[in-house]
Amino acid sequence: MAPVVLHDILFAHGDAAAARTAIVDGDTAYSYADLAQAVERLAAAIAASGVTRRDRGGILLPKFVSEFAAVLAAGAAR
Questions:
Q1: Are 5 and 17 in contact (CB under 8 A)?
Q2: Which residues contact 34 (CB under 8 A, 6 or more apart)?
């Protein structure tokens, strides 16, 4: 059985329910489409900085799930 990763679950559910609310952060609600776009944008920025699979490093992020999922999607956590 292949491992299941957070960003794969996010994208799979987002494809089926893009307009539905995925997460609420304070007074702001984010749809699955919003969250997927944020993850893709941040993952691309992380990859563009030179992070590759199995790299180690520290990242200081706000407490929001899209930033965490972006780190996973960038591949450093695989």
A1: no
A2: 22
DSSP class of residue 20? S
Which amino acid is located at 49 in the chain? Answer: S
In 3D space, the residue among 58, 36, 34 whose CA is nearest the CA of residue 46 turns out to be 58
Residue 24: both structure tokens together: 């609420």
Q: Which two tokens stand for residue 73?
A: 């999607």
Mean pLDDT computed over every residue of the chain: 75
Tokens of 41: 């944008």
Helix axes 32-48, 65-73, angle to 10 degrees: 50
0.85 surpassed by pTM? no
